[in-house]
Design a protein that fits this description.
Immunoglobulin-like, single chain, pYEATS, YEAST_sf, YEATS domain-containing protein, 4-stranded antiparallel sheet
Length: 112
């Protein structure tokens, strides 16, 4: 029994059970294009154990955003960037962990 426990503790880590979610709320008057802007918060959702493994998240926004690549390393915010947005696009993210050299890709379609 002791050998099995030791093996499980030193074996490869399981895949993360993390999802990319978002919230959005109307944010003031329409922009120059006439479309209403929304305050958007993207974040990681998962167990505390899985989220504790994350070191940073690299978000890839639509190229029309200022700073379309954003790196967030703040666990206390669930690795959440905040932005104002209108329209629709696919948000992609690379979740980096302490135990894997390869980031885990996630994506979420946003439509407002």
């Amino acid at each position: 029994m002791h050998e099995r426990i030791r093996h499980l503790q030193t074996g490869p880590k399981p895949a993360l059970g993390i999802r990319l979610l978002h919230t959005a709320r109307l944010d003031g008057a329409p922009g120059g294009n006439g479309e209403p802007y929304h305050r958007v918060r993207d974040f990681l959702d998962g167990t505390a154990t899985d989220l504790d493994q994350v070191t940073k998240v690299v978000y890839h926004l639509h190229p029309t955003f200022p700073q379309p690549e954003r790196v967030i390393a703040d666990r206390s915010t669930s690795f959440a960037p905040e932005m104002r947005a209108w329209g629709q696009f696919t948000l992609t993210a690379e979740v980096c962990t302490a135990y894997s050299p390869t980031p885990t890709p996630l994506e979420r379609y946003l439509s407002f």
